Structure formats: structure tokens, C-alpha cells
Amino acid sequence: MANVVATEIKHLDINNKTCNDKTSTEEEDVVNPWNVVSKSDTGIDYDKLIKRFGSSKIDAELVEKFEKVTGHPVHHFIRRGIFFSHRDMHQILSTYEKGKPFYLYTGRGASSKAMHVGHLIPFMITKWLQDVFDVPLVIQLTDDEKFLWKDIKLEEARQLAYENAKDIIACGFDIEKTFIFSDFDFMGQCPNFYQNVIRVGKCVTFNQVKGIFGFGDSDVIGKISFPAVQAAPSFSNSFPFIFGKANIPCLIPCAIDQDPYFRMTRDVAPRLGYHKPALLHSSFFPALQGAQTKMSASDPNSSIFLTDTPKQIKNKVNKHAFSGGQATIEEHREKGGNCDVDISYQYLRFFLEDDEQLKQIEKNYTSGELLTGELKKKLIDVLQPLIASHQERRAKITDETLQAFMTPRKLKYTY
After folding, report:
1. 204, pLDDT greater than 90
2. How far apart are CA 325 and CA 372, in angstroms?
3. pLDDT(20) > 90
4. How far apart are CA 13 and CA 214, in angstroms?
């Protein structure tokens, strides 16, 4: 098994060196945990990315199995291909069908006090998965990662994590089913977690981690060791107060740029006697200026923030949302708009749940019947109440509520 794992990681090294090579990036999209850049106005070519990363496309067979096993229609994120790729989702569904347990793991690395709407995507589907499967959830706040990668002080990284955690709680997670932890806090609270960090760290060489993540000789050693910290929550015995000594598989909903961490984790897991984590991968939420990059918390005009007022939302959409429409009304009526590049339409794919209404909007905009300004208004009408509702829930999250979610404790499940 050790030789097989080493071979698989070596294969990852080769793939990622190709992805990070300067000559290849002239032709390929750049996708890694810290940088996403598309070469096309329509955004990342996800079919190519599936081949490059070696994951599996979410197809009709998986959707059918999902609905059969759970008795629920799939989330519109899955139905519309927003979550488009997976690793071992069939196995998770079979585990559930047999009445065996699994758990959810996702995370957030806070780089700003306020989250933007793109940050909601993994938490929205995680909340839905938790409700559908009735399973425990652990949420990792990688404040250590942000301290290592960003020019911020340690205490600031911790405070940003706490502020973002309140936004995460406001998504509606059940405190009896959910544990949220900061790496800075939790590492000293739970020896089991740190032991798994070290177990992973012993299985991956310096050359391998350089190949997987593209680290260079000038990177600080904290960056090089961090991937083991993000791997550890994939293993249930990292949380003995929840799972005891049980060895339970986990499912990780995340954006596709986080996949390198878990390719590494999946290669190491068999050597440690653990289950390989399963994954659901989402596409990227585009910036207001277009789909070539994902939204940035550092550029206020690239994002709709969860703290924005109705007026700010309206102004940002009207002024900055890239249009797929034509130069004049007459030309637009004649030729129609391009939904593939129009940001207002793309945002509606995420946040407008009504399939028939979305289909009609696409038809009307493509035919030229619906103008760009009218399309933007439809988006504004969806975003304003969505964010206002989130702000109302967020205002009710006290420091005591946050502390309760972040206290290591037994959840409602017994193993």
C-alpha cells in the first residue's frame, strides 16, 4: 500500500507542476488554493479541470441515486451544475443507504471581517446536506493559514475568524449537530487532532508537498506544514468528544480550488487506516466584473458583501455587473444577450431557486426581449431580501452563541 500511495502522490506532483509551469499557464486556467484565473470570458473550463484533477463529473446517474436514496430532489446547486464534480459520492450514498454513519466537514479561511455572497455557497449546500442526511458537521476556521499567507497579525487573524463564524452560524446550522473550531484555539485543546496532523505530516515528503502545492524555496516552513492541518478534520478520531474512537467517513463540500489538499489527504488515509474523504466540488462564484476571476474580499467593487445595504447592492449591480447585452437597445432586441458571460444571469443561477422562472429569464434575455437593465433589476430584487434576511439572523448571533458552537462537546449523535 505504501508504494501505491507514493506513486499516486508522485502522479499529483507531475500534474501540479504542469499546472504551475509558466509555459502551460499561457494556455490553461490557473486553479490552486490561492489563485484562480480563467483565460476565457465564460470562466473556468470545468470539464478540462475534471480531467486535470482526476475527479468525476456529477452525472444523471448520480443525481438519480441521490434522489432515490434520500427521498429528496437534489439541491438546485447540483441540478444546475454549480456543484459539478465529486470524489466517492456514490460510496457516501451507499453508506447512508445501509444505515451507516458519515459526517460533513467544510471550512473557511477568513481574510476580511465581512464575507461576500460567494462565500455563502459551500455553507448553503452544507446546511442542506446536514438537513437531508441528519449528520454531524465540523467547520474548520483556518486562521493559522491566513496568518501565514496574509500580511496580518496573529490576533487579527483570530478575530476575523470569529466574525466570519457568526456569518456562518447565521446560515442556520443546528447547534446540536455542528461544531465550529479555530485552528489556533483547537490545536491546544485536542491532542487527537494534533496527533493526526503529525501522522499526515510524516507521510508526505517535502518534494511531494512542493509538487502538489507549488511551494518554492522562499516560502516559510509554516506554509509547507499547513496542508496537514487542513487534512486532519477528514478523520473522525480527530474529534473524540463527538465520535469517540469510531472510524467514520466524511464528505467535504468545497470549491474545486481546495481539492489539492484532499487529493493529498486521500492518498495518505489508507496508510493511516482511515477512510478516504469524499468530496463535492463547486464551481467558482464570479466577480461582478466578469467570470475570469473569482470574487475578492479585498476589492469591494468585485463583490456583494453580506454587510451591504440595499442601496449599495443596487449601485454595485447597476454599475459593476458585467453585461452580456448588446451596445444599443436596437441591437440587443435584434441579437439578444449572452447569458454565458452576463454576470446578473450567472448570479441568478446561484440564488434564484425557481427553475421555471430562471429558464424564462434565460429565454427572454437570449431573444432580446429582456434588456440588461431589466435583468439587473431582477437580480437586485433577489439579492436585497436575501442579504437583509441574513443580516437579521446575523444580528442575533451573540458572543455567547459563538462560544457555544465553538466549545468541544458531544453532539446529538452516539457512536
Report:
1. yes
2. 6
3. no
4. 9
Measured CA to CA, the distance from residue 8 to residue 369 in angstroms comes to 52
Phi, psi of 398 (to 5 degrees): -90, 170
Q: Is the dihedral of CA 286, 72, 171, 312 positive or negative?
A: positive
- Per the prediction, the chain carries an average pLDDT of 91
Give per-residue pLDDT as tens, 294-310: 556 667 788 899 999 99
Residue owning grid cell 452525472: 59
Q: Write phi, then psi, for 250 (nearest 5 degrees).
A: -125, 160
Pair type for strands 35-37 and 30-32: antiparallel
Give the pLDDT score at 296.
60
**Which residues make Cβ contacts (< 8 Å) with residue 188, sequence separation at least 6?**
none
**Which of 315, 332, 326 shows the shortest CA–CA distance to 383?**
315
Strand-strand pairing, 137-141 and 278-282? unpaired
**Helix 2-20 vs helix 46-53: angle between axes, to the nearest 10 degrees?**
140
pTM to 2 decimal places:
0.90
Find where cell 506513486 sits: 7
C-alpha 300 chain-centroid distance: 20
C-alpha cell at 392: 437579521
Q: What is the pLDDT of residue 5?
A: 35
Beta carbons within 8 Å of 106's beta carbon, 6+ residues apart: 122, 123, 126, 137, 139, 140, 252, 253, 254
Percent of the chain residues topping a pLDDT of 90: 82
Burial 203-236 (b: 16+ CB within 10 A, else e): bbeeebbbbbbbbeeeeeeebbbbbbbbbbbbbb
Contact status, residue 265 vs residue 231, Cβ threshold 8 Å: yes
Residues whose CB is less than 8 angstroms from the CB of residue 412 and which lie 6 or more positions away in sequence, other chains included: 136, 176, 177
* Residue 176: exposure state from Cβ atoms within 10 A (0-12, 13-18, ≥19): exposed
